[in-house]
Design brief:
Layout: H1 2-8, H2 11-14, H3 23-33, E1 46-47, H4 57-66, H5 81-85, H6 94-107, E2 119-123, H7 124-136, E3 142-147, H8 152-159, E4 164-169, H9 178-190, E5 195-201, H10 213-226, E6 229-233, H11 249-255, E7 263-268, E8 280-285, H12 288-297, H13 305-315, H14 318-344, E9 349-351, E10 358-362, H15 372-386, E11 388-389, E12 391-392, E13 403-407, H16 413-429, H17 437-440, E14 459-460, H18 476-481
Parallel strand pairs: 1-11, 3-4, 3-5, 5-6, 6-7
Antiparallel strand pairs: 2-8, 7-8, 9-10, 9-14, 10-13, 12-13
Helix pairs in contact: 6-13, 7-8, 7-12, 14-16
This protein binds pyridoxal-5'-phosphate (PLP).
């Protein structure tokens, strides 16, 4: 059977390039076959592996009700139906590009402006990444990507383009350094691989951290010196909920001399507006040739005119946008605080972060040994017994075992409380594997953290000992343990 398929289908079709076999996607399957529901399936799997932002749907729904003309399937909007239903060209509606450009500026605190003529549409950031890979690289060429990185990149950038991704292994604090970049670049040179660019995600998925100004400037200098591209995925720009704030690459370009032809931004409304189903993605390139080529390619992944029409109206409403951005950050901050405090009450720390829809949870001390196999074993227990779909660090190519990405913004408060109760029960019932004391403990009040390679202040820990505000005050487990 396999032999027959191999002769019948293309190399892409029979290849494994989609990467669906990793635990990241396995976890989704476990959730799909047994999804949690508070009444119908209270023992089901809780989905904490999906970076969705559902905390502000009420604001969007309210706006839609107040603006019925923005939807063409309404009495108020039906006059727009004919023009919306017919073929569009690949430039997209001018009002859509104007509104996106303005929104991108607002999300960046109006410190920079974006030119609507540089905006190219794509089917989400997924389509934008592939489009850029097609524009910038040939099969066999490579991009450097700091680890840990979003697992979808292996599919989006590599599968159909034949491009390679070369991991850049950062220091133990997950901080990207030029030394690490140089090492990855040199390694590629030695292997005769042509490096065409560097891809960064800022704010980071999975870390939830942001790059500081100095690092961004050094990255721009690095890619200029090597004459390679810099692709900046900024799709979590408006998920920043505390300090340090977000600095866009577009701000850095205003401040320093560099070859702008090398700089490209990937953006989408999937995270900042919580609209992944709308598939609104864009490439913003400072390079005219890339804009032209990408625009032609965008025929393969246009945003439907109906969606463009709705989004153009919504994002042109300054009052709504400003309120949404502020309120979303506020709600994310509260959720992040409640969730991390709940984890801390059972001694689980997370990497310090100020953005994103997830935390980078530190379960290193629960590993039987410091290996990827032990991490996968622990992850299986979390999926099968604890019934939480979290994503193991190995899915993000993290080289240090024991880290897990846990999404917290795709559920209501009650579900988060159930998730915390399950984690609490699991941790209390799990015996910590024996390790030599010297290696297990940091100094001070971060006692439970292990491995001296990590700087203690990078991990948020143990506010349980500081905070009287438990997010799960009614939990019988809390009462039983305090
Ligand atoms: C860093 C990053 N880039 C791109 C994507 C894909 O986004 P979209 O839904 O807009 O295709 C994701 C989705 O999780 C992501 O985290």
């Amino acid at each position: 059977m396999r032999f027959i398929q191999q002769n019948l289908l293309s190399k892409i079709a029979i290849s494994n390039g989609h990467g669906e076999e990793i635990p990241y996607f396995d976890g989704w399957k476990a959730y799909d076959s047994n999804p949690f529901h508070p009444i119908n399936n209270p023992q089901g799997v809780i989905q904490m592996g999906l970076a969705e932002n559902e905390l502000c749907f009420d604001l969007i729904q309210e706006w839609i009700l107040k603006n019925p003309g923005a939807s063409i399937c309404t009495a108020e909007g039906v006059n727009e139906f004919r023009d919306t239903a017919l073929y569009q060209d690949y430039h997209g509606l001018p009002e859509f590009r104007n509104a996106i450009a303005k929104f991108m500026g607002k999300v960046r605190g109006d410190k920079v402006t974006f030119d609507p003529d540089r905006i190219v549409m794509s089917g989400g950031a997924t389509g934008a990444h592939e489009m850029l890979a097609f524009c910038l690289a040939d099969p066999g060429d490579a991009f450097l990507v700091p680890v840990p990185y979003y697992p979808g990149f292996d599919r989006d950038l590599r599968w159909r383009t034949g491009v390679q991704l070369l991991p850049v292994h950062c220091e133990s604090t997950f901080k990207l350094t030029i030394t690490a970049l140089e090492a990855a670049y040199e390694k590629a040179q030695a292997a005769n691989i042509k490096v065409k660019g560097l891809i960064i995600t800022n704010p980071s998925n999975p870390l939830g951290t942001v790059l500081d100004r100095e690092t961004l400037r050094s990255l721009v200098s690095f890619i200029n010196a090597k004459n390679i591209h810099l692709v900046c995925d900024e799709i979590y720009a408006a998920t920043v909920f505390s300090q340090p704030g977000f600095i866009s690459i577009s701000e850095i370009l205003e401040e320093m001399e560099c070859n702008r032809d090398l700089i490209h931004i990937v953006y989408s409304l999937s995270k900042d507006m919580g609209l992944p189903g709308f598939r609104v993605g864009i490439v913003y390139s400072y390079n005219d040739a890339v804009v032209n080529c990408a625009r032609k390619m965008s025929s393969f992944g246009l945003v439907s005119t109906q969606t463009q029409h709705l989004i153009a109206s919504m994002l042109s409403d300054d009052e709504f946008v400003e309120r949404y951005i502020l309120e979303s950050a506020k709600r994310l901050a509260t959720r992040h605080k409640d969730f991390t405090r709940g984890l801390a009450q059972v001694g689980i720390g997370c990497l310090k972060s100020s953005a994103g829809l997830f935390v980078w949870m530190d379960l290193r001390r629960l590993l039987k040994e410091k290996t990827i196999e032990a991490e996968t074993e622990l992850w299986r227990v979390i999926i099968d017994k604890v019934k939480l779909n979290v994503s193991p660090g190995s899915s993000f190519h993290c080289s240090e075992p024991g880290w897990f990405r846990v999404c917290f913004a795709n559920m209501d408060n009650e579900t988060m409380v159930v998730a915390l109760q399950r984690i609490r029960k699991f941790v209390l019932e799990t015996k910590e594997p024996e390790m030599p004391p010297k290696k297990r403990y940091c100094q001070g009040n971060l006692r439970q953290l292990s491995f001296k390679s990590r700087r203690c202040e990078d991990i948020m820990m143990a506010p349980s000992m500081m905070s009287p505000h438990s997010p799960i005050p009614q939990s019988p487990l809390v009462r039983a343990t305090t």
